[in-house]
Amino acid sequence: MIKVNSLWLTLYLKHEHSKTHTGNRAAFPAREIVRLATLGGAEAIGMSDSIGSIEVGKKADIVLVETDSVNMFPVFDVYSALVYSANASNVSHVFVDGNLVVEDKKLVLTSISDLRGNLAKEMTYFTEKALEFSEDL
């Protein structure tokens, strides 16, 4: 089983799977793949009334992707660029529920070192609990 932890890789793999399965690279257009990743994902978890598209009354979770990097040039079609060319390093700004959390590719509300420290503390607790649980098996 392949474990995919990147939205960009997931988008690309969906296209490749459709192209390979049907033998037709137009079988699943990039625009439809982006729709599946946004509104389709929200529909799948029963939250399309509050997330998944940019509409008045919905949470403003928005990712801005820069197109200045070499891997993003040229951009003839925005959807194709997102599916076939973009990766996490192209994310320039992120808004979560309308709040800016990444600006110019840098975290706004915290630092990586703070996150690592918090994660290390949480992992210590998690590891202890996992060991306790495994002893009971």
What would you say this structure looks like, in words?
The chain has 137 residues and is of the alpha+beta class. The chain has 4 helices and 4 strands; from the N terminus they run H-H-E-H-E-E-E-H. It has helices spanning 7-22, 30-44, 78-85, 112-135; strands spanning 62-65, 91-96, 99-103, 106-107. Strands 1-2-3-4 form a 4-stranded antiparallel β-sheet, with no helix packed on it. Strand 2 (91-96) and strand 3 form a beta hairpin. The two termini are 26 Å apart. The model has no long low-confidence stretch (mean pLDDT 85).
Features:
single chain, 137 residues, alpha+beta, 4 helices
Q: Please, what is the average pLDDT?
A: 85
Number of strand segments: 4
Report the radius of gyration as a whole number of Å: 19 Å
- Extract low-pLDDT stretches: none
Listing every helix as H and every strand as E from the N terminus to the C terminus, the arrangement reads HHEHEEEH
The strand order across the widest sheet is 1-2-3-4
- Find the structural class using helix and strand composition: alpha+beta
Indicate the overall shape. Answer: extended
Query: Approximately what portion of the residues adopt beta-strand conformation?
Result: 5-15%
Helix content: 40-55%
Query: Biggest sheet, in brief?
Result: 4 strands, antiparallel
Q: Quote the distance from N terminus to C terminus.
A: 26 Å
Number of helices: 4
